[in-house]
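User: Hey, my collaborator sent me this sequence without any context and asked if I could get a structure. I don't really work with proteins. Can you help?
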Amino acid sequence: MSFLRMAPPPKSYIAMKLLPVRMVEDLNLDSQAQEEARNLERRVHEHMGNVRSRPQLPWPTSRWTTCCVDIISDNQSVAETDVVATILPNTAFSRADVERIDTEPGLAFPRSDAVYTLESRIDVRVRTEEKRCDSRKAVRRPVYSFECDYIDCIGLSHSSPAFVTLLKERSAAGDLGEEEVDDIAKLYSTRIRERDLLKGVPTATDPFRPQSTDNPSDTRLSTDALRSVSPDLVDIIGFGEDPDGPLVPLVEASLEIGDHFPESSRLTTPAQFLEEVRCVQSIIVRALRRECCTVR
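Assistant: No problem. I've predicted the 3D structure and written it out in structure-token form, which is a compact way to encode the shape of the chain:
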């Protein structure tokens, strides 16, 4: 039996690090954006996360898998009133409304000060290209425990399209003119289609039909056809289109949390991770704005 997986198992704890350079390169942005991304990548932290939901099912050709994670902090990094759960053996908080989270039998959780907070939930894209996760190295919380739906989501707005919302926020802050929003949004839409970034997997071909030399498009898997088989299948396997996907933080993930987060180190906070995400999103917006100005 193979223990290797393309994606972290659900409920597993992971070490993750943002990949600003890859996010910028995917969109084929200018050299200034790439330099800003390299500078940011040298400053980003490693963050501990817990995979809340089953990751999108990755295919062998998938570039990433999308999942929802909770950013894990420590006792010293967050306000006590923000703590909603502790991970055993942490027993630092005695409030009745603070849940105690155990882990499944197997590898022990490496920290005695780890906590979940009110605002810790965010969608990420875990890079899967040339990556394998050994599920034997996973520290996991029991599947039945801790669903805490009252934890607030951070990151991109869940209203659609989130990119336009992001541009309007930048406009309200004075970073963009109102007249620029539509042009940048159109350029972004064109770019993600040119770069095949609407889906988590490259455009696939049907393995059950011979390749046509006269009309290769005949072999393309139809999203509508897949939806007719199962309405959820398209989203589960990453064939569904998501125009905001390239803005979702792309991370490198590892299951070896004991190697990355010894007891002597400090864990980060959701706010720190969100600040890094906003920095790379700002790099993307500025680069698209420069390109729009050049075209005019």
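In plain terms: The chain has one domain: 4-201+237-295. You can pass these tokens on to your collaborator as they are.
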